[in-house]
Design goal:
Layout: H1 2-12, H2 17-148, H3 152-156, H4 159-216, E1 223-227, E2 230-234
Antiparallel strand pairs: 1-2
């Protein structure tokens, strides 16, 4: 029957009409199902919206007292925030001023400490100089007392007397050395002549010794003749 229907459609010039009709019917069925599903979905959505509106209304009713209490608190928070900003600005300004003053004070303290260290060093230096001067004055006073003292032993302890004695001793020593130098210069010539004669005598004695030793060995290299208490070597 399907084949006859298709042949008839071909003869009538409406080939594929039955297929199209079936497709349209199928599409129409699908559309009906979709419309039904859409209707159910819309109903579900409407029900859900109602439930949500009901929940929102309940939440609003529950939150209404809280919101009512929150409004003055929010206003109070804004006022406190504004006051905080003002106080913070004042604090920052005051802190900046205090920091500047602190830096100046620290710099001043460093300068005073350096000045104190310098003055302390100067104090110790002056104190040492004072002690040295006191010692020098004490020595000068003791020297003056010893110098003008009637006691001879005490006077000899004076530095001036000691230096005077040292000067006299050195002058006497220099005088003796000059005299000794003069004597050495005057006796230099005779002493050198005497030393030369002594060297000649030493050579002669050495020669006599060698001659004696040769004579003992019976090797005649000369003859020693004694006449008038003198010895003569005859070669």
């Amino acid at each position: 029957m399907q084949q006859q229907l298709q042949s008839l459609e071909v003869k009538q010039g409406i080939s594929g009409y039955s297929d199209t009709q079936e497709e349209l019917e199928r599409v129409s069925a699908i559309k009906s199902e979709l419309d039904e599903m859409k209707g159910r979905t819309l109903d579900d959505m409407s029900e859900m919206v109602k439930k949500l509106n009901s929940v929102i209304a309940e939440k609003k009713s529950a939150l209404a007292p809280v919101i009512k209490e929150l409004r003055p608190l929010r206003q109070n928070c804004q006022e406190l925030t504004q006051e905080y900003e003002e106080k913070k600005a004042q604090y920052d300004s005051c802190a900046a001023g205090l920091e500047s003053n602190r830096s100046k004070l620290e710099q001043e303290v460093r300068g005073l400490r350096e000045e104190n260290a310098q003055e302390e060093s100067r104090y110790h230096l002056i104190n040492c100089m004072k002690q040295v001067i006191e010692m020098q004055m004490q020595r000068a006073s003791d020297e003056m007392k010893a110098y003008v003292s009637a006691d001879l032993q005490e006077r000899r302890k004076a530095v001036r007397e000691q230096y005077t004695r040292n000067i006299l001793e050195q002058e006497n020593l220099g005088k003796k050395l000059r005299e000794k130098q003069k004597a050495v210069r005057e006796s230099h010539g005779p002493n050198m002549k005497q030393m030369t004669m002594w060297c000649d005598l030493q050579q002669l004695m050495e020669c006599k010794k060698q001659c004696y030793l040769k004579a003992q060995n019976q090797v005649s290299i000369g003859q020693v003749i004694q006449e008038g208490g003198e010895d003569r070597l005859v070669l």
